[in-house]
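Hi F.,

I've been meaning to write this up properly since the lab meeting, where we talked about keeping a consistent format for the predictions we share between groups. The idea is simple: the sequence comes first, exactly as it goes in, then the structure tokens exactly as they come out, then a line or two of notes. No screenshots and no reformatting. I'm using this chain as the first example so we have something concrete to point to.
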Amino acid sequence: MTAGGSAGGSAGVSAQELPPGAWPWLHDVARWLGTWIFFPFFRVRVHHADRLTSSGPVVLVANHSSYVDGPVLFGLFRRRMVFLVKHEMFTGPVGWGLVRIGQLGVKRGTPDRRPLMAAVGVLKAGGMIGVFPEGTRGAGDVEAAQHGAAWLARSAGATIVPVVCRGTRRPAGRGRRFRPPVDVLVGEPITISSGGGRAGLATATETIRAEMAGMVRELDEIRSTT
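Output, unedited:
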């Protein structure tokens, strides 16, 4: 993993950085596996990894173009990360594993504050929450996820760090690729001001959206020259 230095600092040791029911040792093993399991399939290049602090509450907001994005990011940064994952994934052995490594299930289109409050608890303990605004179908769900990221940051006094990932999705009409380059760009941290009600959340959401749109263009330019 290159371009921008090592991805973050050393992992935290506090079990409070994970939701209740998680096994910290299993989370760390899964994250360790994630550091190399994709090596045979992708050439991952990280840009500006130093923008992500090694400690303190962070809401990481990432784009989502394929199912691989989450696992790649999970193993990429050297600190514990709890993703908000669609509830449908929490069935059978996969669901059991997701709970044990500390991921949180979110029901689409259904008000459920439990996972959000669990996420706030993780942030207040100094942990990191990962949100994929594009990970749900429908503009309403995407908007809700973006508002959720801003709400989490404001509620827990956390910093938002935008991240964009390009290269995991196979272009339409293209055959299987041999170790294609995957680029991850870490953006400048965004501070959400306290208060402001819904209008403040809407402003913060638009700031996140505009920042990530600009980062996608920046990363595409980087990829076109490398």
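Notes:
Confidence is low (pLDDT under 50) at residues 1-6, 8-13, 135-143.
Helices lie at 24-34, 69-76, 92-100, 113-124, 139-156, 197-224.

If this format works for you, I'll send the rest the same way.

G.
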